[in-house]
Amino acid sequence: MTKRKIYSVESHEQVLQVWREQGVRQANVLHLDFHCDLRGLLINRKTQKAFRIWDRHWKLDEGNFLTHAVLEGVVTGIRWVHDEPGGRQDDLKTVKYESDLSALVHRTVLKVRRCPGIPIHFKVMPKTQWREIKAGEILDIDWDFFASCEYPKDSIQNRVEFFLARDWSQIPEQTFVCYSPNYSHSTRAQFNEFVNNLASKFDAEIVDVPNPASAKVNAFSGKSTLKSLIQPARQIYHSACHALRRHGIY
């Protein structure tokens, strides 16, 4: 009997790389994350169809790995669970819905091009409404589900303990846990402890997935002058977007 596995990754796009290597097709994923990781995707919730839309950052990264997975047929079902704060209202580069004001142009272009869309089973819910994992689902956990920089650091342990104390009617054969250092508090020791405790609870083997990108240097990081000029404008833009979303305008 094949032992259950928990894959520990640094950045979320590594998960898609593993799925590609495994030849995963039409998977259902339980995605526990502050963010949707579906940037560049428009989902019509009424017809349950997904469409690729324009995104200037199309290269595979941690913010769109599920978008690529959907378009490649690797994933056909997503249940996204997030805490509050969290979800679309707290994410600027998020999935678009058919009802969004900002989706009007995309919908027009898709209609003119007669894009049929890709069938998808998509559901989103706050953590308070989520009860259990379904049979056959892959469990995908971002550490910022517990340790987002938006949460008090001293609340992390209680969040983790509450999660680990849950009763699981189904134990996933595959679980992926992502550290996401850009979005989580600096809590590497707590992250490693969580992975170990989850492996014990699920009777699973831990697989540490190497991150090839960790050796790369961000060329933009050295351009401090340009960065200092862009940062204030970016903050104003982010504040304006959050204000609109607090009023239900996306």
Descriptive report:
This protein is of the alpha/beta class and 250 residues long. The chain has 2 domains: 4-216, no CATH class; 221-250. It contains 7 helices and 11 strands. The chain has helices at residues 13-22, 65-71, 104-113, 144-147, 156-164, 188-202, 224-246, and strands spanning 4-9, 27-32, 41-44, 49-52, 75-82, 96-97, 118-119, 121-126, 138-142, 174-178, 204-208. The strands form 2 sheets. It has a 7-stranded parallel beta sheet with strand order 8-5-2-9-10-1-11, sandwiched between helices. Strands 6-3-4-7 form a 4-stranded mixed beta sheet. A hairpin with a 4-residue loop joins strand 3 (41-44) and strand 4 (49-52). Helix 1 runs parallel beside helix 2 (65-71).
**Percent range for helical residues?**
25-40%
- Supply the helix-strand structural class: alpha/beta
Q: What value does the Rg take, in angstroms? A: 18 Å
Strand order of the largest sheet: 8-5-2-9-10-1-11
Topology order in helix (H) and strand (E) letters: EHEEEHEEHEEEHHEHEH
Spatial separation of the terminal alpha carbons: 48 Å
Unreliable residue runs: 215-223
- Number of domain units: 2
Shape: globular
How many strands appear in the DSSP assignment?
A: 11
Write the SSE topology:
Elements: E1 4-9, H1 13-22, E2 27-32, E3 41-44, E4 49-52, H2 65-71, E5 75-82, E6 96-97, H3 104-113, E7 118-119, E8 121-126, E9 138-142, H4 144-147, H5 156-164, E10 174-178, H6 188-202, E11 204-208, H7 224-246
Parallel strand pairs: 1-10, 1-11, 2-5, 2-9, 3-6, 5-8, 9-10
Antiparallel strand pairs: 3-4, 4-7
